[in-house]
Amino acid sequence: MLVLNNTNDQPLTFLLMGIPGLKAAQVWISIPFCLLYMVALSGNSMILFVVFHERNLHEPMYYFLSMLSATDLGLSLCTLSTTLGVFWFEAREINLNACIAQMFFLHGFTFMESGVLLAMAFDRFVAICDPLHYITILTNARITQIGMSMLIRNVVVMLPVVLFVKRLSFCRSMVLSHSYCYHVDLIQLSCTDNRINSILGLFALFSTTGFDCPCILLSYVLIVRSVLSIASSEERQKAFNTCISHITAVAIFYIPLISLSLVHRYGHSAPPFVHTTMANIFLLIPPVLNPIIYSVKTKPIRKAIIKVLIQKQVQI
């Protein structure tokens, strides 16, 4: 058995996977994927544009929303080239360094999204439970600190993962299971002991999403308790309505993530194309739906987008 490692003169090359068993239909399958990428990129770009240009949106809630949109843009862009390249041009080859770079950004943006959702939960908690101190607690400096701390956390947890992947040796079977590089998928091809890689991957997962999810749940337990203490039913409904968009964003991030994990673990009888299709779709659900949800459910965002579109039409 030929064993290859990253110190050999010839660069390691892996083969990305399209839709198993549906190679003839991949060009047609790529059309909905292309449309989803277009919606994700245009929707999140629009959110960033209106938050940046509209002064009435220069508030903590919308700063966090712009962080979410920036993260969703990064998440979409880091898989766009390989996914559509495989579907359209059968460009399946990717070298180890490019694969590791994509893996770093893919997992990094996923963990970043989890962190931003936690920050947004904190924003809702302060706005509802301590509204008189909202502006003094969530200052621009503190929002910047929160954003920087999430970036630093992602780099700290992902650097060991990346460095230990580079130390692995690989066998002749170099076919990945997705149209992008995924940590678990990559280390399973290793011929050497990958237990430390698995441990680092689990640590990265539990120290990010594993920490964020319970904190988000706790924040909403406290929010519900605070809202139920409000005497007026109208005020209670108003308070809950400010959380609907965020609750939906949390659901469309964590439910696909958990579902995909369950399918990988227990869905061994399902055809391979089911796993690959679900992995690609689930990766696009948050970037596609988040801007739609916030555009529909958040009145200031909706009005700002309509204003921009009307100005564009007038200029034309």
Description:
- The chain is globular.
- It is built from twelve helices and four strands.
- With 316 residues, the chain is mostly helical.
- The model has no long low-confidence stretch (mean pLDDT 89).
- The longest helix is centred in the middle third of the chain and has 34 residues.
- The strands form two sheets. Strands 1-4 form a two-stranded antiparallel sheet. The protein has a two-stranded antiparallel ribbon with strand order 2-3.
Short description:
This protein is mostly helical and 316 residues long. It contains 12 helices and 4 strands. Strands 1-4 form a two-stranded antiparallel sheet. Strands 2-3 form a two-stranded antiparallel ribbon.
Q: What attributes does this structure have?
A:
mainly alpha; 316 residues; two-stranded antiparallel ribbon; 12 helices; two-stranded antiparallel sheet; 4 strands
Task: Provide the fold topology.
Elements: E1 4-5, E2 13-15, H1 26-53, H2 60-89, E3 93-95, H3 96-129, H4 134-137, H5 140-165, E4 169-170, H6 183-187, H7 195-207, H8 209-228, H9 233-241, H10 244-266, H11 272-297, H12 299-315
Antiparallel strand pairs: 1-4, 2-3
